[in-house]
Amino acid sequence: MQWIYRAKKHFNLKEADIYSLLIPIHYRISVEQIKAMAEASNMDEFFAVLQKTPYARHYNFEQDLTIEQMYEDCLYHLYTADRRQNPYSIASINMYLFLKEEELRKLTTAMECIRYGLNSGETLGYVGGKI
Q1: Nearest-5° angle of CA 77, CA 54, CA 129?
Q2: Shortest CA distance to 126 belongs to which of 111, 6, 25, 94?
Q3: Rounded distance between C-alpha atoms, residue 82 and residue 92, angstroms
Q4: Domain ranges of the chain
Q5: Buried b (16+ CB within 10 A) or exposed e, 13-45
Q6: DSSP letter at 62?
Q7: CA distance linking residue 43 with residue 84, whole number of Å
Q8: Residues contacting residue 103 through CB under 8 Å, at least 6 positions apart
Q9: How confident is the model at residue 130 (pLDDT cuts 50, 70, 90)?
Q10: What is the pLDDT of residues 33-48, one digit of tens each?
């Protein structure tokens, strides 16, 4: 879903190019739904198909979060749950490395926003903070 979303939103790729990006493993999404998302003519049609998937029950696609932000939130909750269930395992190290990676991503984004002269509200929006 995320690859199709990025290909349609940022790169305006054709269906054949989108299919070449996809890994042929479908978890909880049927092949017909993948085809419908890849062949959607615009983002509204893409989100209409996305609402029919099992993921629509767990995620509110109508809110202001992007699919990338939902993905990061999902990873955060998975790493946190794993660390709580197995505190004396590699899960703690995985959680630490994930948090460090997120911190570096936010610092890089903040520096890029400063470099390009964005105001503080826009910078907080990109970094994921509250205004």
Answers
A1: 35
A2: 111
A3: 8
A4: 2-57, 67-127
A5: beeeebbeeeeeeeeebeeebbebbbebeeeee
A6: T
A7: 38
A8: none
A9: low
A10: 999 999 999 989 998 9
How far is it, in rounded angstroms, from Cα 29 to Cα 51?
12
Residue type, 131: I
List pLDDT tens digits, range 85-120: 999 999 999 999 999 999 999 999 999 999 999 999
Q: What distance in Å separates the CA atoms of residue 119 and residue 111, rounded to the nearest whole number?
A: 12
CB 8 within 8 A of CB 46: yes
d(CA 98, CA 21): 25
**Tokens matching residue 65:** 């979060």
φ/ψ bin of 128: left (φ > 0), alpha (ψ from -120 to 50), beta (otherwise): left
DSSP codes of every residue in 100-121: HHHHHHHHHHHHHHHHTT--HH
pTM equals: 0.70
Half-sphere exposure of 100 (CA within 13 A, CB side): 6
Residue 80: both structure tokens together = 């946190």
Q: CB neighbours (10 Å) of residue 5? A: 18
Three-class SS of residue 39? Answer: coil
